Please model this.
Amino acid sequence: METSKVCLVTGASSGIGFAIARSLNDDGHKVVVTARRLEKLKELNISDNDILVGDLNSVDLQNDLETHIYEKYDRCDYLFNCAGMIESGTIEEVDIDKMSAMLRLNVETTFRLTYKFLKRFKKQGFGHVVNISSVLGTKVRPTAGGYAATKFAMEALSEALRMELTGTNIKVSCIEPGLVLTELHNSWKVHPKDSMNIHTPLSPDDIVNTVRFIMSQPDHVRIPRLMILPNDHNI
Ligand SMILES: NC(=O)c1ccc[n+]([C@@H]2O[C@H](COP(=O)([O-])OP(=O)(O)OC[C@H]3O[C@@H](n4cnc5c(N)ncnc54)[C@H](OP(=O)(O)O)[C@@H]3O)[C@@H](O)[C@H]2O)c1
Model:
């Protein structure tokens, strides 16, 4: 791959964020990672100094991430917004407190971090925000109304930014995966691969391949949205 980039990966302790951070690190990029579980982040073999642990909803942590990256590297090329959670259920019966926590992390925190780094990207004249949205950023299903609402919000943020940043060297991409085998559904009584008859879900490495594709594009190309589905995804 081209020259070494400075990348911030949120939600880097498991699943998609972990795989993206590991591949970026393996490819020789400078990677700053964050999540709440230190022991999992340490498995990435990234220098301790570039691991910032905590709840990403904390504005203090968001500030620390910005300060650390710009004091140490004086630039940031990529913001990967991977931290996220899922809460499902009908709107009538959903756990409203967990739903609100999801709205906060998936929407408010993604907006805040993007807002913060966007100002830096404008100042430095380049940068790329990569949002891990979902196929549910493009359609709704019963019991997925709340989660889809958070992903629709991410899509709206990205699409508005794409238009607002036209003609600049700042890029925004939304990756829209179908089912990926990660820890996201660990607490579900029935895993979606069984309820949706998906025999071979995507792996986090499949998402890494889409990231490599997006990162390999020349300056004049924009990939605003990229959907990736397992073969037997049929709804
Ligand atoms: N898996 C799928 O089928 C799928 C499909 C489409 C889109 N996505 C999206 O992909 C993204 C990553 O999900 P995943 O599947 O990789 O799930 P995952 O394995 O559960 O990873 C979620 C990550 O978010 C972090 N996180 C959660 N709450 C946090 C908080 N309050 N503060 C800081 N970090 C927090 C977790 O770290 P800690 O627990 O250590 O804090 C973890 O690193 C999510 O936005 C998800 O919606 C997933």
In short: The pocket of NAP is lined by residues 11-17, 35-37, 40, 55-57, 82-86, 105, 132, 134, 177, 179-180, 182-184 (CB under 6 Å). The beta strands are 6-10, 30-35, 51-53, 78-81, 127-132, 170-177, 225-228. The domain at 6-227 is CATH 3.40.50.720 (Rossmann fold).
